[in-house]
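User: Hello! I'm new to structural biology and keep hearing that structure can be predicted from sequence alone. Could you demonstrate with Osmotically inducible protein OsmC? Please show me the input and the output so I can see what each looks like.

Assistant: Of course. The first part below is the input, the amino acid sequence of Osmotically inducible protein OsmC. The second part is the output, the predicted structure written as tokens.
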Amino acid sequence: MTAITCTYTGDGETELVHGPTGSTIQTDLPPDNGGKGRRFSPTDLLAAAFASCVLTIMGKMAATRKEQFEGARVEIEKRMAQNPRRVGEFVLKITFPAHFTPEQKKFYQTAVNACPVHQTLREDVKITVEVR
């Protein structure tokens, strides 16, 4: 289990601390929700997690197959929906290394569905809230 602590620092911003390492990330409200957009928004972090998850799995697949994967990229766009305000769509644009064949690209695309972040984006996810 990884503990992450989030503190509201004011003016629409938060700071997250990764318990095991002390690494920090700051967030801000996006302009389309009344914020200033000075940093990643919480939904930007969701998109970033999705893209990072996909590439991490692909990288692990490549290591297993002993294939060069450095330089692969995912550009992800999140599209917001309303009522309720949420992410309505993710558009992923994957750039594979230039030497990859169509067969390799097809194989690695399976990582999109295998990604735990993608698998979590479901309506039947249980949410537990603890108030202290």
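User: So the tokens describe the shape?

Assistant: Right, they're a compact way of writing down the 3D structure. Reading them back into a model, for example: The beta strands are 4-10, 13-18, 24-28, 73-81, 86-95.
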